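Shipment paperwork, digital attachment
Item: protein structure file
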Amino acid sequence: MNDNSIPVEGSEGVTFKNGFRRWTRQVQGFSMRSIQETTNSWMLMSVVLGIAPLMQLLFGLQGGFSSETLAAFSIGTAMFGAIYVSLYVFGYQLAGDLESRRYHAYRSMPVSPLADLFGRMAAGIVLAVITFTLTIIVGYATGGAFSVQGAASVPLVAVTLVLTCIFWMVVTIPIVAFAQNKRLAEYVVPIVAVVGYVATGWNGVSSEMSFIDGDVINYLPNTLPTRTIVYHLVGSGDWGAIGVTPPELPAGPEYFAIVFAYALIALVVGTAFVNRVLYRQGWSK
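Attachment content:
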């Protein structure tokens, strides 16, 4: 899909209704373009469909783990996959647009910077959710036992996942915006997800394997949402027996507020970079 798929016509007038309609069409245009570029690339699709589910499959086939351990590990790997896709696909496509000088054209059009950002994010969230879901399915198929804590668990897990993806997509923006290098986005940026996954014990699901000790594991932007989801989807009363604790899992509303704060701060920073660096505007549109 090319730039012609992003509506920029301005003949409807300047009413709020017409402006909002055009804005939503631009969001949809950026989102659909991103998804089509991904589905048309075997490399990007292999990242979305292959890495995290394959990792979970290999782990599950080893045997010798309890069903709760398999479930917790699959959540850690699923979150790794979601973060990896958020960094890789978002950063790779943004770097490609910068290298091809596409933003020189966008700046001359009535394109909303926020429509650009939200459209790319919407596509990234869809792809990350697909990765996360596939990995959980593989975890279940290889013996993982999942159970929800209550009626609010499923929506809380969904919102936590979306907020986490928003945070990690924004992480790529300043790096890619200043480097403007597609290879950097392809090889270097995703290493952030790999290092975070390994250094924190598979995103915080294995306290013994983590290089970080203490309560700080409940506050990092990769481990906090992962451990929150483990609490809601793995019905084990003995968290220590499956290696998730110590420390205690972040189950209270204050931890969800921290996840929300991470995403909100990221949106503010992302908006600033897209407006001022990519579009060279102020806080508009």
